[in-house]
Specification:
This is Transmembrane protein. Keywords: Membrane, Transmembrane, Transmembrane helix. This protein has a domain of 82 residues. 76% of the residues lie in helices and 0% in strands. The protein is built from three helices and no strands. Helix 1 crosses helix 2.
């Protein structure tokens, strides 16, 4: 359970000694797996002892997680929409440039054919 210093303490934290004075090797042999199991058991006991504290943790951090997930997904959708609009705008600009270049080519062809024709006043003078 929780001690006065704010740390979790348990009877299992103190290794037991056998009658001949040697420490019980079960904790030392267990290694990190035993520490993890002991830590999990202490957390479980604390959660059973103080369910409202853990409920508030779940509510606050769970709500924060849901909100972050919602904002992340909304950001991703917005980025996808912006990419789609940029692609449409790029295609539109390319099409407009092709149309403008075709119009310029057509105008230049018309102006070239107009320069080859004699002026209308010259036709009247020769007749």
């Amino acid at each position: 359970m929780w001690g006065k210093d704010g740390r979790m303490s348990n009877a299992e934290d103190i290794p037991s000694q056998t009658a001949d004075g040697h420490q019980d090797g079960s904790l030392a042999a267990a290694g990190s797996g035993g520490q993890i199991a002991r830590h999990y058991r202490n957390i479980k006991e604390h959660a059973e002892t103080y369910p409202y504290v853990w409920g508030s943790y779940i509510l606050v951090y769970g709500g924060l997680g849901f909100w972050l997930t919602y904002r992340w997904r909304k950001l991703r959708r917005t980025e996808d929409r912006v990419r789609l609009l940029q692609e449409k705008l790029r295609k539109f600009v390319e099409a407009e440039q092709l149309t403008n270049s075709a119009a310029v080519t057509e105008l230049s062809a018309n102006s070239a054919s107009l320069t080859n024709k004699p002026p209308p006043s010259a036709d009247k003078a020769t007749k």
